[in-house]
Fold each of these.
Amino acid sequence: MKIITVVIPCFNEEKGIGKVIEAIPKDKLKALGFNTQVLVIDNNCTDKTVEIARSKGATIITEPIKGKGKAILAAFNNIDEKTDIVVMLDGDNTYQSSEMIRLIEPIDNGFCDVVIGTRLGGKINSGSMSFFNRIGNWSFTFLVRLAYHGSITDVCTGYFAWKGEVVKELSKYILSDGFAIEMEMITKMVRMGYQIYSVPITYNRSEKSSSLHPVSDGAKILGTWFRNLSWKYDGTKK
Ligand SMILES: Nc1nc2c(ncn2[C@@H]2O[C@H](COP(=O)(O)OP(=O)(O)OP(=O)(O)O)[C@@H](O)[C@H]2O)c(=O)[nH]1
Ligand SMILES: [Mg+2]
């Protein structure tokens, strides 16, 4: 059997985490030849996230330093060496776990190395993305396509699938601790020469209020886009 590891970064996601784990299509994945492992990253949760995740069979990784980037790097450093495919999605039940079947298909069939779930090219349900965030996401995506020439259609998405070996290599170069992590991963993966394509996904309204600060986080995301323009992959860092 092949192995798929599902990574879910969490900061106080007691409302969503149970639903996200339960909806992982384990039976369908088994029929495709995959055993599923679930890693939940406890990024300083003070609610019942950890208890709920554990009761649903997830392995808990603890990352005490706050920030989505830190949580993702902790996950990458704890992935089973033998993992064939890594999938990541948020713990707030805004992405649909059932849709991971479509994200992994192009990787499993050798079409590409990385797939991003695109909200901008998919279904954005009512109330899930503010007008301001939509403009920001379109603008960042345009800038990445313009300067990096990647076939990317939603740079700030939280739904990814990678070949296991891509994550091993990419994790050596991750520096972002917060919400610029997606921009960092995408721009660096383009520079590393990986084949990245998108599949449409559904984006649902979050049950909790947004903790992303459009202006300050937007500035950090733009700064990461700019900084990585001169980033070169040397393939030697251990
Ligand atoms: N806010 C926040 N989220 C974190 C942190 N560490 C991990 N996460 C997780 O990262 C994922 C995305 O966080 P969200 O706050 O939903 O941010 P977002 O989806 O980019 O933006 P909005 O939902 O529009 O606010 C969630 O699963 C969080 O639980 C952290 O330190 N802060
Ligand atoms: Mg969210």
Amino acid sequence: MAKKVLIAYYSRRGENYVNGSIKNLKLGNTEVVAQKIKALLPDADVFQIDTTYEYSKSYMTCIEEAKQELHD
Ligand SMILES: Cc1cc2nc3c(=O)[nH]c(=O)nc-3n(C[C@H](O)[C@H](O)[C@H](O)COP(=O)(O)O)c2cc1C
């Protein structure tokens, strides 16, 4: 029996860090990679992991939230 593949990924859309600057991404970086893997493995299932609460859409504020979580 052929093995079933699951592509599970977590990725941030919107403001994100790309090649040294903040850009507004339609798709997150990891999401783009997940789609490339899916194109190579069309039978695979794709599952986008989400957070239990929404982080700030502002990249800089999100950084502060992440720092606070690490501190806590
Ligand atoms: C809260 C936060 C902190 C990040 N910190 C860094 C960093 O210190 N250095 C870096 O090169 N990229 C940093 N990034 C950018 C991510 O590493 C980059 O976008 C990576 O591709 C993550 O995948 P994603 O775009 O699918 O979310 C950060 C992104 C977020 C949201």
